[in-house]
Amino acid sequence: MLVLTRKLGESIAIDDHIKIVVVQIKGKQVRLGIKAPKETKIHREEVYQAIQDQNTEASQSDLSSLSDLTSDLKKK
Amino acid sequence: MKLNTSRFGELEVDKKDIIVFKEGLLGFENLKKFFIVDPGDQTLILWFQSAEDPATAFPIIEPKIFKPEYIVKLLPAELASLDLESINDASVYTILTIPKVVTEMSANLKAPIVINNKTKIARQIVLQDSKLEVRCQMYMELKRYIVNYSSDDSTRTTAQAPKVANSETQPFEENTSKEENANTTGKEA
């Protein structure tokens, strides 16, 4: 991994079209501004983790848990 | 071809019904081939069964069933990655999590599965909209839909042996019987 040191207001350019700026430093928090083309997808890493967790949990569903749901759903 | 599954036993699957995830699903990057199984239990919940691992299957549902206003907006690059000109040429499913307390079931609206109906190429796409939830609780909406639906349709048959569904069929469409929908080819109807 490439590690760079930046001060407040300084930025990093990735390729020709992506720019990341250090907008604010407050204690343990850093606020970053990201300039990128519209088609660039930007997510907090936690989003991917949450989706991965959801996928894993979903894959463990079995037919018996679903049959409980089925009978429950059909009750009027 | 015949494929073995741990939940549904051995199933006969037509090669053209195999859905290919070039990148796999998040956390399941090594599994690329899936097919859709309709267990025929009238809950409108289908399964994405791995063709490579008999034990891996995900319960899925079409989000418009419980959330009619849900729209998947794809970026041009995402459409291109699926060889799509428009989202209208695709099927959209959300993966369900069904916990012990079934009323807490949830759907992943943040990262739906989008399938090109023609090429059967699919991706789990993480949408940019930050309001979409990874675990959107939707038990009540689904129940409401099912209760209304079954009262409209007296010709429905009871649950039957698992069948492989064509991903293009729409199990919630009215005036169509379950058997026709569950038909592997969907063409005899």
The total count of strands of chain B amounts to 12
Spatial sequence of strands, sheet with the most strands of chain A: 1-2-3
Name the average pLDDT of chain B: 82
Mean pLDDT of chain A: 90
The end-to-end distance of chain B, rounded to whole angstroms, is 23 Å
Helix content of chain B: 10-25%
Structural class of chain A: alpha+beta
Low-confidence stretches of chain A: none
CATH architecture label name of chain B: Roll
Radius of gyration of chain B: 16 Å
Structurally, the number of domains of chain B stands at: 1
Q: Could you tell me the strand content of chain B as a percent range?
A: 25-35%
Figure out the total of helices of chain A. 2
Structure characterization notes:
The complex is a heterodimer of chains A (76) and B (189). Chain A starts with 10 loop residues before the first strand and ends with a helix. In chain A, strands 1-2-3 form a three-stranded antiparallel β-sheet, with no helix packed on it. Chain A has 76 residues and is of the alpha+beta class. In chain A, strand 1 (11-14) and strand 2 (18-26) form a beta hairpin. Chain A is elongated and about 60 Å long. Chain A has a domain at 1-36. Chain A contains two helices and three strands. With 189 residues, chain B is an alpha+beta fold. Chain B has a single domain (2-180), classed as BH3618-like. Chain B has helices at 76-81, 139-152, 178-182, and strands at 2-5, 9-12, 19-21, 33-38, 46-50, 57-61, 90-97, 106-107, 113-116, 121-124, 136-137, 163-164. In chain B, the strands form two sheets. Chain B has a seven-stranded mixed barrel with strand order 3-4-5-6-7-9-10. The longest helix of chain B has 14 residues, at 139-152. The radius of gyration of chain B is 16 Å and the shape is globular. The two termini of chain B are 23 Å apart. Chains A and B meet through helix 1 and helix 2 of A and strand 6, strand 7 and helix 2 of B.
